[in-house]
Amino acid sequence: MGQTKRKRHIVVIGAGAAGLMAACAASDCGAAVTVLEKNEKAGKKIYITGKGRCNLTNACDLQEFWNHIVSNPKFLYSAVYGFDQQQMMRFLEDNGCPVKTERGDRVFPVSDHASDVTKALLYHLRNRNVEIRYHCPVKRILTAGEEKTFRVTGVETRTGERIEADAVILATGGRSYPSTGSEGDGYRMGKELGIGVIQPAPSLVPVLTSEAWCARLQGLSLKNVELTLLRPQEETGRKKKKPLFTGFGEMLFTHFGISGPLVLTASCYMDFDSHPEGYFMRLNLKPALTEEQLAARIRREIDAAPLKKMATVIRTLFPQRLAEEISSMSGIGERTASSINDKEIDKLCELIRNVPIHASGTRGFQEAIVTRGGLDVKAFDPSTMECKNVKGLYAAGEVLDVDAHTGGFNLQIAWSTGHLAGESAAEEAGI
What is the reported pTM? Predict the structure, then answer.
């Protein structure tokens, strides 16, 4: 009578989006899985995404999907094609979390409660008898063997406990929202095993500006505007390179500068370590109008109210506070509409379509939605998520140098890479 084959044991470090999905996939393949989480509960960052509603993925077609990946899209091909947005949506539906698709193909739980996404993942794991140990931070990943033949043997917790494993999946997240436990632990563990780390930086983050007028407009939200991001040396006009970013959408003025979806996306392309002098931005307040159409519109408003102050006249185009700032920036100030000549109208139109803003920094990891940078993807096999030089070590999610625009894309990266790492770890372990 043959012996029952021992289940291979997989340890997942981190119970965030990528870690929970990795545990789901590995346990679906028959592995015995233990998840180690430093916090008191799972999915702590999931709870605060989408303002507590959880924009869990984006339902756009895959061709469009790749246009929203900022760092290393090719590395993600196997992961996303293997477990795409539709599969994630079905997974949640099958585990008691119905979903809905809103404007911009953003997908949310029908309940509008982010907690229901985490509950669905935990429900799946309970049905697979997966153990999740809370308040259990990992100190290091254990390996055996000589250089270039290292193999994972388990992990050591900060209390000194050693847990044996046939494979380890590193899903500790990045450094964004450190209040959720994202302190860069995965980078340290990776470095200890010889894995390169691309300098982490905050991304999808509000932007600091040098201009005082931005702060004076605190609380003002604009829709249907266009923002263009340029390198500082390109502002001089000596270099006519393609802008780093041009986007259309919504933005918000704050006490420190600017925020909102359009600004968060632009921040993906800002590297203040390389450009400490900052970046120039150009804000088009009326992108739907050509300069000629805008000039004609302003002339009509002047003809209709020639004795009013110019700031009052252009209130038909902008909110009052913004109209006053534009009037001041243009040099028109308190002058009446009838005193404005054609040259000044042309200058005003040019300003409205090219309001200069200087980005001097960001609000940092405390307010960043994701981290740009992380474990160098060159160290991992994109078809399995396994480390090339440490057998049995896998990575998934934000700990890797992969990031995307806002709109559910970053969470889909976590689901897809987590799923591939979990499946690969289980198969590699001989399940």
Answer: 0.92
Instruction: Tell whether 416 and 391 lie within a shared domain.
Output: yes
Q: b vs e for 209-220, b when ≥16 Cβ sit within 10 Å of the residue's Cβ?
A: bebebbeebeeb
Domain containing 85 equals 9-200+370-428
C-alpha–C-alpha distance, residues 58 and 408, integer Å = 5
Q: Tell whether 28 and 174 lie within a shared domain.
A: yes
Q: Is the same domain home to 334 and 392?
A: no
> How many domains are contained in the chain?
2
pLDDT digits 0-9 by tens, 226-259: 999 998 765 544 556 789 999 999 999 999 999 9
Where is 418: in which H helix or E strand? Answer: helix 409-428
Domain boundary among 362, 390, 419: 362
Decide which of 343, 362, 381 is a domain's last residue: 362
End-to-end C-alpha distance for the chain, whole angstroms: 21
* Alpha helices, DSSP H, located in 83-219: 85-94, 115-127, 185-192, 212-216
Strand partners, 12: 35, 169
- CA angle 68–82–67, rounded 5-degree value: 10
Mean pLDDT of 137-166: 93
Asked whether residue 38 falls in the same domain as residue 149, the answer is yes
Pairing of strands 390-391, 162-164: unpaired
Q: Residue 216: name the closest of 277, 262, 258 by CA.
A: 258
306-337 pLDDT, tens digit per residue, is 999 999 999 999 999 999 999 999 999 889 99
Reading the block at residue 196, the tokens are: 């390169």
Distance CA 310, CA 197 (A): 54
Contact 20, 91 (CB under 8 A): no
Residues 142, 155 contacting (CB under 8 angstroms): yes
Q: Following DSSP, what letter does each residue of 185-240 receive, concatenated?
A: HHHHHHHHTT--EEEEEEES--EEES-HHHHHTTT-EEEEEEEEEE-GGGTTSS--
Instruction: State the angle between helix axes of 291-304 and 342-353 in degrees (0 to 180), rounded to the nearest 10.
Output: 120
CA proximity to 229, closest of 207, 213, 214: 207
Cβ–Cβ contacts within 10 Å for residue 309, how many?
18
